[in-house]
Amino acid sequence: MTQVFSRSHYDAIIIGARCAGAATALLLARAGARVLLVDREDGSQDTLSTHALTRPAVSLLKNWGLLGQITRAGTPLVRQTRFQYGQDVIDVPVQPEGGVAGLFAPRRWLLDRVLRDAAWEAGVELHTGVTLVGVQKQLNGRVCGVSLRLKSGAVEPVSAGIVIGADGRQSSLAGMVGARSTMHSETRAACIYSYVDGLSNEGYRWFFGNRISAGLIPTNDGAHCFFAACDPRAMRQWFNFDAFGGAVQMLSHWNADLAAELAARGPVERLRRYAGAPSHLRDCAGPGWALVGDAGYFKDPATAHGITDAFLDAQRLANALSVTPGDARAYQAARDHLAPRLFTLTQQIASYDWDLDQLKQLHMSFNACLKQEQLELSGGDSMQTLAA
Fold it and tell me: How far, in Å, CA of 6 to CA of 28, rounded?
């Protein structure tokens, strides 16, 4: 039988090759680890995303030497964030910091490809069309490898110093290793997403009203990601018959002229519906295993923090494994310094159980967490107590 993998043992095997898995693979390989990265999908297809990167995520791309590829691909620079609460407009300039001029919101086909290519250049062995079907354990219960199903249908065992799940919110690895859920929430927002061409780049624009919200995020190829969201119980009311028209009608609550412009331009890609999903915070480290990205920590997209979570997980796990190879316990502690607070704030925002003044306070608290994340990256004291 033809050998598919180059070796039978790796320092790390990573399940899932999107932004969390590819970033983790890149960092471990650059540190000298022999890494196998597998994904059940072929290539870097697009995926549902708000695309918006916060400052910690942009800083990490710069630190990893990848931000130039994102900008050279024509990803527009974001110099301002606008929050509109009813008719109250708050513009927040994005100040240059750490050699980064602003924020970015790349399409996922671009972001994931850049990360995968960088991982491959760092020596990561990448295979697609490969599915996790089981884990191998030592007598003491420590995970020591996996069983992988190939495109041919054959199943091959491969051993590793650590197995890392980056396989999304319904992570197979999390189930196989019995990762404990420490926080859970059924709260969710229902959304529709699409893309509109030709709008001027006025930065990230977020709109909030009575149990509704919307957003415009400038991304690649002259397009904006346009989304509208509401309580799931109102999804049929807003989006059942003419989803784009319903989203435009929602936007007209804040800006009738902008809504009319979107209606005239229309969507340039198919509409995508997202009815929401339960959120979780799971243990992200155990004997011989770790979880990154949505596999360990999935929040409602209401705060557009998912890619930032994925990047921070990758960096924190790489930092922990550089000190104690194969032992990710320090990673769990680093992630959980802020994760419960961010989880709670996000789910409160996604609930729509607030008035606009309360929402402003929730956003201020969330922004305080972002500043703590940025402080962590700059080498500051990330263990400072957050204001409630």
Answer: 18
| pLDDT tens-digit series, residues 157-193 | 999 999 999 999 999 999 999 999 999 999 999 999 9
Instruction: Scan for tokens 């596999």, then name that residue.
Output: 295
Strands 9-15 and 35-39: parallel
Element (H, E) at 257: helix 256-265
How does DSSP assign 261-317, residue by residue?
A: HHHHH--SS--EEE----EEEE--EETTEEE-GGGTEE--GGG--HHHHHHHHHHHH
> What's the chain's Rg over C-alpha atoms?
21
pLDDT bucket at 384, cuts 50 / 70 / 90: very low
Q: How many C-beta neighbours within 10 Å does residue 232 have?
A: 15
Of 249, 250, 244, residue with least CA distance to 196: 244
Predicted pLDDT at 44: 64
Q: Give the range of the structural domain holding residue 126, as residue numbers without chain letter.
A: 9-51+107-184+278-377
283 and 227 housed in the same domain:
no
Global confidence as pTM: 0.95
